[in-house]
């Protein structure tokens, strides 16, 4: 995904995290999802058409559709107050695709940072699947995960890329630890949420604080 696309995606995910945390209005956030979603569905069409049509060009440009379609689907679901099970099943599909991207980055490109990033994105999409199909009350938890990822996987990498230092070996090493630490944080809180959910099964709101 291009640097500008990363930055816009970071903005969308940041606003979506605030929505899930109850800090932002749903309709206003959904409008921004729709705007960026349209951009990130239209732009890959142009990039694919003007590319050399190699498998790696399609691999790189096709990923933008995953974000663009997610933003459009999420934006329309919130704006029209639609039933979210369709969005949930779509999110499950994207989470599986994300694991494929993580595998390719690890095996073919030997890129640890992008591997960890795709694992985190896959996890977030999987959480949206649980939220929209399992009807689990985990909005606050997902909001926290989305907030962290909006900066760690999108906004800050985009800003570092714009500054021309993203490929610096020291930055790569630091960001590997940042990604690993984020995954550890998610794992600890997922375990905590799971234990609380089992312990308080009778409570209609077993949310993480």
TrEMBL record:
Q: A GO CC term?
A: plasma membrane
User: What membrane topology does this protein have?
Assistant: Multi-pass membrane protein
Q: Keyword Transport: yes or no? A: yes
Q: Which residue ranges traverse the bilayer?
A: 6-24, 31-50, 56-75, 87-109, 115-133, 145-166, 172-191
| Keywords per UniProt | Cell membrane, Membrane, Transmembrane, Transmembrane helix, Transport
Q: Which InterPro entries match?
A: AmiSUreI_transpt (IPR003211), AmiSUreI_transpt_sf (IPR038523)
Localized where? Cell membrane
- Its chief place of residence is membrane
Stored Pfam families: AmiS_UreI (PF02293)
Q: Which family does it belong to?
A: Belongs to the AmiS/UreI family.
Q: What is this protein called?
A: Acetamide transporter
């Amino acid at each position: 995904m291009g640097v500008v696309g990363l930055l816009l995606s970071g903005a969308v995910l940041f606003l979506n995290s605030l929505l899930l945390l109850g800090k932002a209005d749903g309709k206003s956030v959904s409008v921004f999802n729709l705007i960026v979603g349209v951009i990130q569905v239209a732009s890959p069409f142009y990039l694919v058409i003007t590319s050399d049509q190699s498998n790696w060009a399609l691999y790189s440009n096709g990923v933008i559709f995953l974000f663009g379609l997610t933003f459009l689907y999420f934006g329309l679901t919130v704006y029209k107050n639609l039933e979210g099970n369709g969005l949930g099943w779509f999110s499950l599909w994207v989470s599986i695709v994300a694991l494929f991207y993580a595998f390719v980055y690890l095996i073919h490109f030997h890129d640890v940072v992008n591997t960890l990033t795709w694992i985190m994105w896959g996890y977030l999409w999987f959480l949206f699947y649980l939220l929209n199909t399992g009807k689990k009350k985990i909005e606050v938890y997902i909001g926290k995960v989305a907030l962290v990822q909006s900066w760690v996987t999108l906004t800050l990498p985009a800003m570092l890329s714009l500054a021309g230092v993203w490929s610096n070996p020291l930055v790569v090493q630091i960001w590997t630890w940042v990604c690993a630490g984020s995954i550890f944080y998610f794992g600890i809180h997922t375990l905590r949420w799971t234990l609380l959910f089992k312990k308080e099964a009778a409570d209609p709101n077993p949310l993480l604080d």
